[in-house]
Amino acid sequence: MSTQQSTTDLSSAQHGLRLHNSHQRTTVPFTPDDAANVRIYFCGPTVYDRVHLGNLRSMLSADILVRLLRALYPRVTYVRNITDIDDKIIQRAQENGEDIANLTGRTTQDFHDDLAALNILPPTIEPKATQHIPAMLEMIGRLIAQGHAYEADGHVLFDVTSFPGYGALSGRSLEDMLAGARVEVAGYKRNPGDFVLWKPSNEDEPGWDSPYGRGRPGWHIECSAMAERYLGESFDIHGGGNDLLFPHHENERAQSLCCYPHSHFARHWVHTGMLLSGGEKMSKSLGNFHTIHEVLERTPAEALRLLFLGSHYRSTLDFTWEKLDEARRIMDRFYRALEKTPPTGAETVPADMLDALCDDLNTPLALSVLHRHADAALEGQQEAANLLLAGGQLLGLFSMSPADWFQGGTELDPAAIEALIEKRLAARKARDFALADQIRNDLAEKGILLEDGPAGTTWRKG
Ligand SMILES: [Zn+2]
């Protein structure tokens, strides 16, 4: 295999990116407004609880898209917000007896930790809703002035009948939506589908002073205001899980297009598929709600990354522990190939892999290219090992050395090892030698060897 046939310059124009656009309901060529600065907004989490694997899959899909865009274009501005004011947050803080700032700060940190474990790169800008209330109020003021919103009973509501394009993004007719929304319609709404831009806050709820009284923003206006602040009235890509298509994205679009009538808001809408767990939607009540912590107890996070990459981002993926184990075995094989033939460089990404990604992020096909190069690297072919490394790194894989991977990947931190040594010592003192041996063996399986000496027990990596 020659270098010319198998590799290419990433900036080459031949890799035209095609992306599915939910608005057009088909896959179309992606053409940025400004090729010198591609602008993308992805809806981030509402920080009231640890995110589940479905949220992480959506963030990973965005990560792959942004990594590809960064490979194809000189600059990418990626904005992903934090929703840190929401009724769910207020309710959870009350249940926990916890200060709201503490809850949102703690949960934001957990979110960052979870993404870092999966090697999901941080966005360019990560705005928090509570820091952009004036921008939201400015948009609300404009919408009222232009006849798209009205005050009622302490609320400000968006009048969905004022925007002829309402429903176009999600493919719903206004009539259907109005019919479907008949249950539990608040009396102050002109139309059942009208949604909240601003709502009043009780004394014990967080609130900001506004021309409509002390209150807080609705969820949808938060994203519209933050997108405009950092990306402008019009930008390239807006994304999120497909559960956000309606009403969240439909409402964002209505607000922004009515507020800035000469803009196109987001040109391209990208939606990621659902993650099921054992065939059902993940939920705490079904006991199939998994966090990345449970995954890390079983495998390094890279195996989860591979599991996600193994299905197309728009498809529904059913998570099972068996699939995770299978993904780990595939990673074992990739790392064995890199161990057998250590790469001498990773400058070039396989051209056919880039083609696969440019075809609406076809990650299953991209992985098949990696498999082919892993086969050849296992046979000792040097160029294949280099291509395997470069291709895998573009997908955010191979963040560790083969040696580290085979030593368990999930590196125990020294404090955790010391704690286990203490526990073993206590077991020996209590003459519970079975437990002491079990601790020693468990550590050995993770590549940590204990040595008992006159000065106590020390450890080293085996
Ligand atoms: Zn949003």
TrEMBL record:
Write out the residue ranges of the motif 'KMSKS' region: 281-285
Ligand binding (ATP): 284
Q: State its location(s).
A: Cytoplasm
Task: Kindly report the protein's main subcellular placement as a broad class.
Answer: cytoplasm
Record carries keyword Membrane: no
Cofactor needs? Zn(2+)
List the catalysed reactions. tRNA(Cys) + L-cysteine + ATP = L-cysteinyl-tRNA(Cys) + AMP + diphosphate
Cofactor, free-text remark: Binds 1 zinc ion per subunit.
Bias-annotated ranges (Polar residues): 1-14
Q: Which Pfam families does the record associate with it?
A: CysS_C, tRNA-synt_1e
The UniProt record lists the EC number as: 6.1.1.16
Q: Where does Zn(2+) bind?
A: 43, 223, 248, 252
Q: Which ranges carry the Cysteinyl-tRNA synthetase class Ia DALR domain?
A: 352-406
State the SMART domains in the record: DALR_2
Protein origin, superkingdom: Bacteria
Which keywords fit this entry according to its UniProt record? Aminoacyl-tRNA synthetase, ATP-binding, Cytoplasm, Ligase, Metal-binding, Nucleotide-binding, Protein biosynthesis, Zinc
Motif 'HIGH' region per record, residues: 45-55
* GO MF, one example: cysteine-tRNA ligase activity
Residues of the region (Disordered) are: 1-30
* Subunit structure and binding partners: Monomer.
Similarity comment text for this entry: Belongs to the class-I aminoacyl-tRNA synthetase family.
Stated name of the protein:
Cysteine--tRNA ligase
User: Which organism is the protein's source?
Assistant: Bombella pluederhausensis
